[in-house]
Amino acid sequence: MDALVSLTVGILTACGVYLILRSRTFELVLGLIFLSYAVNLFLFASGRLVIGKPPIITDQASGYADPLPQALVLTAIVIGFAMTAFLIILALKARAELGNDHVDGRSDTGERS
Amino acid sequence: MNQLVIAPLLLPLLTGTLLLLLRDTVSFRIQRQLNLTAVVAQILFAVILLVSDHEILVYALGNWPAPSGIVLVADRLAVWMLLITAILALFALLSAMRGSDQDGRHFHLLFQLQMFGLNGAFLTGDLFNLFVFFEILLLASYGLLLHGGGARRTRAGLHVVALNLLGSTLFLFAAGLIYGTLGTLNMADLSVKIAATPPENLGLARTAGLLLFGVFALKAALMPLHLWLPSAYSAAAAPVAALFAIMTKVGAYCLLRIGTLIFGEDAGAMANLYANWLLPLALATLIIGAFGVLSASELRHQAAYLVVVSVGLLLAAFGLGTPDAISAGLYYLAHATFATAALFLLSETIASRRGASLDRLVSGVLIPRSGLIGRLFFITAMLVAGLPPFSGFLGKFLVLRAAFVNPLWPWVMGIVLISGLLTLIALTRSGSLLFWRTEGISDAAAAGIGELTPVIGLLTLCLAMTIWAAPILALTKAAANQLLRPQAYVQAVLGATVEAENR
Predict the structure, then answer these.
(1) Do residues B348 and B296 touch, judged by C-beta distance below 8 A?
(2) Largest alpha-carbon pair distance within chain B?
(3) Is the dihedral of CA B448, B450, B453, B454 positive or negative?
(4) Taking every pair of C-alpha atoms in chain A, what is the biggest distance, in angstroms?
(5) Closest CA to B216 of B180, B184, B179, B248
(6) pLDDT per residue over B233-268, tens digit each?
(7) Model ipTM?
(8) What's the burial of B174, exposed, middle or buried (CB within 10 Å: 0-12/13-18/19+)?
(9) Buried b (16+ CB within 10 A) or exposed e, B109-126
């Protein structure tokens, strides 16, 4: 499972980095969403991956799942969600005001090939 | 007394919420008064915290003891930053109240939330909480940056938002790594645990530390991460740009705080992790910023590059790392914030009266009341370029004097002096273009005293900092000494917990 999680984080990050280097705002937004997925998974894994254990320390259970990363990732998801919503609205505003969806507001489409 | 620590957070949060709820029911004038009252109260809180004899005040949220709960810590550095922020906000608000706050419905609400984020970032003693306050201040700053609208602001806003979202992602990666390797996110606890990092985790912990360095460098506009700043600051409305003068200092504050508290002398294998990077990059920032000042074709662009230059000198002082250098840096921080804010406000006054040339550095019409405005520009330029006898010179001189103990002192001296000279040349050229090489006289209405009051106020503040330099330096020196002995901070935050365990 460790390998699967780390591979997923890696692939999501790679896709995110590739997409934010593109010149269209839509791809930029998608790239940032991918990156925030990657970092959420990463944060979740920072408390070590544990299966079937309660998030509290009890005498009955043989171990526990660290509850703090779960709280952190919840906060990060909420913030990331709000930021993404803001960025989408801003991208739409830029599309309307600058007349195109290039990140620099340039109208030439030469860079897209 | 400890309860007072949370007051600078509750007040702007509650005022902001109130402004949101009341925006349709109360008149704009009352919203302005509410905002102004809250800002003045924040200055009072900062002054009370500053003059209280308590060394370090700790407030545990929900009374959860650290490191389990989140703590707010008001040490000398945090209170110093609170005071600068609140005073700057007062002048920025006074300037906005001349009319530019009416360009959007939510100016006052966003202004208070911006204060909430800034105060929180300075007070928090928890790394993840710092991230949360960063997001709050950034979200408010996006709103303020776009205040007034227009294609130029939208384009600059899009770049800033995308870059800062990327920065936030890196921050989260760093926080995850730190929690994964050291098992805590409380800064005082980290300061204790960092020295005992197991060798197999050393690489990961160092990666986390340097990722954080990158994030803070982006906020502080350290070279090569400074490229977002000039277009954003020059596009923003003048009062907003003036308030943003403190935003880069948040990054500088975090570099100083994390660099001394967590990666300080006692951090074992990771001691002085930041110091080795900070000085060379800061000197490079100084040079690049000075070239930017020279090449700028608009006054507001020039002012934005002057922010980059001030960040360079500030971080060079922090990078030197001695008590004298940090104390000089903290003095310079206050001066640079006020002086660049005054320049942003002044460029708006000038730009609005030059017809089509705006603030472009070309010869145009002479603005009305050019005598007074020219003199104000002259004083601002002397302050910013660091000429005697003003506070800019004092700050620079103290940084240079503190640099002598460092083996790199010839570099520091040379680069600081050259960048000062380049700044001076650029500002001289701007001043002579704007006020001497003019054709005809503008028919715009003359700037009233009311419009110039915030600028005069900020310049008076810099003058006061020159006259009462000794007591202010005593304050910053105490702050620097406190920073370089993090044991007191750790004791104040974790003391209660440690005592409870011993019992």
Answers:
(1) no
(2) 82
(3) negative
(4) 67
(5) B248
(6) 888 888 899 999 999 999 999 999 998 888 888 877
(7) 0.91
(8) buried
(9) bbbbbbbbbbbbbbbbbb
| The domain over range A2-50+65-98 is classified in CATH as 2.60.40 | no
Q: Which two tokens stand for residue B202?
A: 């050393």
Map tokens 């900062």 to a residue: B46
Contact assignment for B165 to A32 by CB distance below 8 Å: yes
Q: B489, B73 in Cβ contact below 8 A?
A: yes
Domain limits, chain A? 2-50+65-98
d(CA A56, CA B177): 22
Distance CA B53, CA B76 (A): 10
As a whole number of angstroms, the distance between CA B280 and CA A38 comes to 33
Q: Helix, strand or coil for residue A102?
A: strand
Q: Which residues of A touch B139 (CB under 8 A)?
A: 82-83, 86
Distance from CA of A103 to the nearest CA of B (A): 7
B161, B166, B168: residue with CB nearest A20: B166
Tokens found for residue A31: 């790239």
Token output for B407: 């083996």
Q: Is A48 left (phi over 0), alpha (psi -120 to 50) or beta?
A: left
Other CB atoms within 10 A of residue A4 CB: 9
CA distance A76 to A81: 8
Please report the pLDDT score of residue A108 as a whole number: 60
Q: Which chain B residue lies closest to A80 (C-alpha atoms)?
A: B165
**DSSP per residue over B263-276, as a string?**
SSTTSGGGTTTTHH
Q: How far apart are CA A20 and CA B162, in angstroms?
A: 9
Where residue B30 falls (left for φ over 0; alpha for ψ -120 to 50; beta otherwise) is alpha
Helix axis angle, B323-351 to B247-261, nearest 10°: 170
Contacts of B372 (CB under 8 A, 6+ apart): B447, B452
Tens digits of residue pLDDT in A3-18: 999 999 999 999 999 9
- For residue B213, give the nearest of B262, B286, B180, B160 by alpha carbon: B262
Of A28, A46, A93, the CB nearest to B162: A28
